[in-house]
C-alpha cells in the first residue's frame, strides 16, 4: 500500500472512510461513536496544509492518519481504515509513516488517546509498541486533550493516553 500526503481534493473521501470506520462501534454497543460526525472539511484542510495528513492509497484513498504536535511529540489525532481494507496492516503502515515524520522533525515519541477496551483501539496500539501512560506521565497538552474528550462525553467508556518512544525503534 502506498502512503502519501493527503490532498485537498480527497477530503470528502476521508470523511467517507471515517463514517465507514465508525460503523463497527455500533456492533459493540457504542452507537454514539458510530454516529459521530467525521472531522470537518475545515479541520481536515488544516491538517493537510500543515503537512500532517497522510493517506494509504490503492486506486483511491482507503485509510488516513491525522497528526498534531503536542508538547514536542507527534500526536496521532485519528487513524481510520475503510473496513473493506481492514486487517491488511494499513493502519500500522500509516503509524510507521507518522513515526518516520516524527523522527524527521526530531520528535522523540508518538502519542495518542484511545478507547482502552475496544479491540482495534488500545490493544491494537499496544501490539504496535505503544504503552499506556499513567496520569502522572501525561504532559500538559495530553491533559488538555483528555479534558476536551471528557467534555465531549468520550469518558463514558474507558480511555487511555499511550506513547511510543521512537528511540526504542
TrEMBL record:
<dbReference type="GO" id="GO:0016747">
    <property type="term" value="F:acyltransferase activity, transferring groups other than amino-acyl groups"/>
</dbReference>
<dbReference type="InterPro" id="IPR016181">
    <property type="entry name" value="Acyl_CoA_acyltransferase"/>
</dbReference>
<feature type="domain" description="N-acetyltransferase">
    <location>
        <begin position="1"/>
        <end position="149"/>
    </location>
</feature>
<keyword id="KW-0012">Acyltransferase</keyword>
<keyword id="KW-0808">Transferase</keyword>
<dbReference type="InterPro" id="IPR000182">
    <property type="entry name" value="GNAT_dom"/>
</dbReference>
<dbReference type="Pfam" id="PF00583">
    <property type="entry name" value="Acetyltransf_1"/>
</dbReference>
<protein>
    <submittedName>
        <fullName>N-acetylglutamate synthase-like GNAT family acetyltransferase</fullName>
    </submittedName>
</protein>
Amino acid at each position: 500500500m502506498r502512503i502519501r500526503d493527503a490532498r485537498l481534493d480527497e477530503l470528502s473521501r476521508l470523511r467517507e472512510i471515517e463514517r465507514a470506520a465508525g460503523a463497527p462501534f455500533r456492533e459493540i454497543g457504542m452507537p454514539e461513536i458510530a454516529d459521530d460526525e467525521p472531522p470537518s472539511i475545515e479541520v481536515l484542510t488544516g491538517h493537510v496544509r500543515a503537512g500532517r495528513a497522510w493517506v494509504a492509497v490503492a486506486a483511491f484513498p482507503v485509510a488516513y492518519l491525522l497528526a498534531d504536535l503536542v508538547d514536542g511529540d507527534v500526536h496521532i489525532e485519528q487513524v481510520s481504515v475503510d473496513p473493506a481494507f481492514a486487517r491488511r496492516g494499513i493502519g500500522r503502515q500509516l503509524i510507521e509513516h507518522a513515526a518516520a515524520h516524527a523522527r524527521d522533525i526530531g520528535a522523540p515519541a508518538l502519542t495518542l488517546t484511545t478507547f482502552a477496551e475496544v479491540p482495534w483501539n488500545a490493544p491494537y496500539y499496544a501490539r504496535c509498541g505503544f504503552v499506556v501512560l499513567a496520569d502522572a506521565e501525561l504532559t500538559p497538552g495530553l491533559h488538555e486533550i483528555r479534558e476536551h474528550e471528557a467534555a465531549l462525553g468520550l469518558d463514558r467508556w474507558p480511555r487511555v493516553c499511550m506513547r511510543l518512544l521512537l528511540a526504542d525503534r
